[in-house]
């Protein structure tokens, strides 16, 4: 990090590729973050017990063991936003990551500049006073704040890609939130969900 810049906080980066860790570390340091890199989840979990990062960038290996790391972070009250990265990521993997507490899901390869922007957005949202608010739909369990935002955009007719751009998320992440909304509402698809909402004359409520 340049010496004349105030730190924006620590970012934990777990990535099995040394070159990728170095590129991410350099980009984040240039954006005023302190960076601690890890080659495996066990090392990250040990460090997370002693300090609270501003954000965690967690690679999802092919065996999906990153989900266990993500769940452990939440179980141990590490409430920093966690962004999950993966090579050849699927919608199912994105859904599992979101359900396990990820704030974003990003497919590799990616541009380091995009990652920095996503981390900035995740930290900013986490810091907002209303970030823990919940939304309700009639007859279903509460939606998270992110799910409520996605639903509002869906109701406005936006596509997944348009929602992703507006919310500074990946399209896979939006797919994950959309799947969670449908599951909670017991809807077969988005059309079914919106038909119920408009028929009841309701919109997501704070």
UniProtKB/TrEMBL annotation:
Residues 141-201 form the HTH luxR-type domain. It comes from Bradyrhizobium canariense. Pfam families: GerE, Response_reg. GO terms for biological process: phosphorelay signal transduction system; regulation of DNA-templated transcription. This is DNA-binding response regulator. It comes from the Bacteria. The keyword Kinase does not apply. Residues 10-123 form the Response regulatory domain.
